[in-house]
Amino acid sequence: MNCKQGDLAIYVCGGPNQGKIVRCVNLVAPPFVNYAPKHTGPVWLIDPPIHHWHNSTGAYAGDYPYVRDGALRPLRDSEEPDEIVMRVPKPQPTKENV
Predict the structure, then answer these.
(1) pTM for the structure as a whole
(2) Per-domain residue ranges of the chain
(3) Pick from 23, 43, 58, 77: most CB atoms within 10 A?
């Protein structure tokens, strides 16, 4: 699981909500009310809710207060290197910056 209760987290699953900051309020126990069955795993009640659009029409469908844990990346102070920094290779010096 990525997040803990009370964490600030960034939405990382793309679309118009990409980069939105939310707070993980409560872990929602199964069955996940009004949540698409194709998504499995833990689901958070979040604040503020994310905006939701219909896939077929693109019409605004209201605010949705639930997000799966896998769509969130917690924002925490830590002594450990950020996971993105660990995935990207270390920059190599070039003649311009030596």
Answers:
(1) 0.68
(2) 8-97
(3) 43
